[in-house]
Amino acid sequence: MGEAIVVTSGKGGVGKTTTTANIGTALALQGKKVCLVDTDIGLRNLDVVMGLENRIIYDLVDVAEGRCRLNQALVKDKRFDELYMLPAAQTKDKTSVTPEQVRDIILELKKEYEYILIDCPAGIEHGFRNAISGADKAIVVTTPEHAAVRDADRIIGLLEQSHVESPKLVVNRIRPGLVKSGDMLDIEDILQVLNIDLIGIVPDDELVIKAANSGEPTVMNPDSAAAIAYRNIARRILGDAVPLMQLDRKPGAFSKLKKFFGMG
Amino acid sequence: MTVKSKHVRIKGIKDGLVFLLDDKCPFEDLLSELRYKLEHSHQNILTGPIVHVDIKLGSRIVTEEDKEAVLEILKSQGNLLIRSIDALEAPGSKENDEALFLMSGMLRSGQVLHHQGNLLFLGDVNPGGTITCSGDIYILGALRGMAHAGVEGNEEAIIAASLLSPTQLRIADIISRPPDEWGTRESSMEFAYLTNGAMQIDKIHNIVKLRQGLNVFKGV
């Protein structure tokens, strides 16, 4: 029996879909059998980030309404044999499936896959309830901004009232320079308010944008700092004790930085 | 049975009668005198047309049953129509209000905690979280959200927190918004209270100046 993890945030645009795609791919890199589920019906993105948009035949709503079998709707990844994706419908809206239907689909997937990552839509309404209905665990994504932390707090409160196990936190898009100058919330400030376990921090990295646009998850590129961060999160999900990434670049890392900009 | 004492006084007012019941004597004596007066000595005024009656129990603290017993006696006289009964509330409910109710947890954005009485909350109240109380609020943790003490209009209520850093504070009907209204302060355990309708912030050790009735430790 696999484990279903919902990736959620409350606020939009903090990187739920990117996180889902990258952690999922990183788990597949580790040899795990993984299925990604997009529950953002009407505004699906996961297929685009994964570069699988043109392979979609059936979707989540088709499965829920019995128009096809679950296996027919699953899209196999280009890079990994053991990585699949269940896309959301783009022409419907969130209310076209019920939380019970989603839960049944996730339950079915858990028989086949070791990890099911559920990409949750923004908001706390029907779409959120759909997404968490089948989840065992939750990852809450936030960015170092007051608005995102506020929404994460709201989501954590709702998760604590639900059946989902104690949620873990990912702080996304950290810019060490801004944190150092005091212009960005630091990890400690965020943890003090949210008071949940941290499972990873991801630095802001231009390569993530490039990767998402080319339909290739960042995690495939070992030169990207964000890729390393996502791989670390995947290893922590698997139970490894990986220390948190050191964000202040020490002089020794300067050569790496130069290489990063193609000067090395 | 003869009753010489004057525990029950009956006064005529413009549109009825006022029964002034003594608040010092034993309650049983009061009842028996009331019964005696109605059945024997004051029969003259109690016959005839319907009379409105106000009952004043003074500062005697009575329960619902006690009130019922008084009403029972008056109702036995068909022409008395009880209009009002004034008394202090029974001590039972009052004591519960004054006791400090202990609660712990984490109040997150969008969550609301209401308590009838005084509350000691162990944990944080996050921005977007709301804590309301009919009495005082004491928070052993950080108050970053909104706290409203004395929601039913009690201006004596206070709000205290280990870290008083709220988005907004309310006591009774007064709303205050930091930090522009409070200026900069040292961060130590503080409390908010009202003086002349304005919100004030002070260090917790100064609470004895506000609450004279507190048990104060003076050293041994």
Structure overview:
The complex is a heterodimer of chains A (264) and B (220). In chain A, strands 3-4-2-5-1-6-7-8 form an eight-stranded mixed beta sheet, with helices on both faces. The model of chain A has no long low-confidence stretch (mean pLDDT 92). Helices cover 41% and strands 16% of the residues of chain A. In chain A, helix 1 (16-29) crosses helix 11 and helix 5 runs parallel beside helix 6. Chain A is globular and about 55 Å long. With 264 residues, chain A is an alpha/beta fold. Chain A has one domain (3-260): Rossmann fold, CATH 3.40.50.300. Chain B is of the alpha/beta class and 220 residues long. Chain B has two domains: 8-88, 2-Layer Sandwich (Alpha-Beta Plaits); 94-210, Pectate Lyase C-like (3 Solenoid). Helices cover 18% and strands 39% of the residues of chain B. Chain B has a six-stranded mixed beta sheet. A five-stranded mixed beta sheet of chain B has the order 6-8-10-12-13, with no helix packed on it. In chain B, strands 1-2-3-4 form a four-stranded mixed beta sheet. In chain B, helix 1 packs parallel to helix 2. Chain B starts with 7 loop residues before the first strand and ends in a 10-residue tail after the last helix. In chain B, 25% of the residues are buried. The model of chain B is unreliable at 91-96 (pLDDT under 50). Chains A and B meet through helix 7 of A and loops of B.
